[in-house]
From TrEMBL:
Name used for this protein in its record: Cystatin
Localization in the cell: Secreted
InterPro entries, sorted: Cystatin_dom, Cystatin_sf
Domain Cystatin: 45-152
GO CC, any one term: cytoplasm
Gene3D superfamilies: 3.10.450.10
Transmembrane region(s): 26-46
Alphabetical UniProt keywords: Membrane, Protease inhibitor, Secreted, Signal, Thiol protease inhibitor, Transmembrane, Transmembrane helix
Originating species: Rhipicephalus zambeziensis
Amino acid sequence: MQDILNILWIKITNNPRNGAQRRTTAMWLLSFCVLAIPGLVLSAGLPGGFYRRRVDADPIYKQMAHFAIAEHTANHEYFDTVLDLFQVDVQSAAGFNYRLKFTTAESICRGVDKYSPSTCRPKVKEVKEICTAFVFFVPWVGHRQVTSMHCEPPDRRFRW
């Protein structure tokens, strides 16, 4: 980037135009740099931040969503289950932080049962809640933990 700015500055200062035109061109270049460079830097993403992933890119994403909903509804009369996992963001930090967004429905499994995604099917395919879960997973020690979970009722656009 510095090379481009140096080349532009040389072209501007070696231009045979009068001083007023050079100052106008220099101000235009300075304005462009002040506005464009921060935008380019910020759009590149922050190191260590969350990165969007395709939902179907790794089966671990759905496993973590099921883990989160099982933990979240373990004390309910019936477990909820994941209907649709629709957004996944991953951050690598001494393990993996997953930010998962999904829809839920009440399952056929009672809260006293053991939760299993294959057996705890939805009672009806109607969205009960839209959830955002943060799950921290350290695969090399087998540790996973729901660090945050927020669910809210859906609006009409999520009805099946």
